[in-house]
Amino acid sequence: MVLPESDEGSISISGRELEVWPKTTRIDDWVEPTIKVVQFPDAEQIRQGLVARILDLEHDEILSQAIGGIAGSRKIYHLDRWKCPEADLIDARAKALFKRVVGAETAAVDLSWANIYRQGDYCLPHGHVRATAAVVYFLDLGNDGRSGPGHGQFCFADPRLKVCCQREAHAMTTPCGPTVSNGTMIIFPGKLVHFVDTYRDRGTRITLSWNINSTTIAGDPLA
Question: Quick check: 60 pLDDT over 90?
Fold first, then answer.
């Protein structure tokens, strides 16, 4: 467990000042030491406003893209362009988490986006390019809040992780991931192979993702 001090200030949301890094927020190890998990205590105070903004931006011709194939969901790119204080807060938290875990003084977001999953959507196994670390925030798991097979479960499937190779070393036999709920944020090395199981519920499942480095990478990450 890591319990760092808050030094990033606050952001005003609906007339209330919310700390970028609440003082009670812990950074916990998952079963693999390179993967960290955080549960933010004020997740419900920002969830509704952020979900509404994301669903509104779903119709934006510039920021929104329907992705097929490896990532069967809709993505809304560039949190910093959403003009949404809830998005600004979560974006700041992702960068603060990166700095604490990596030990960097700066955090440069190469790309950020929301993932909207509806019934039948999924994301095939992949790693992230141009990313020292990847961050995922679980904003809304859907109507019933369940996680697990059939509910859009986030899993690692990487032969470099012992937890994924429980029958034989370096043989990926056991995809698995942290237990999450609304307000969970995880960080992991960007090259680790991970996927999202098919979402079979009727509600809308929304997560946020970041590719982060300590310095800016040249070029267009979407090119």
Answer: yes
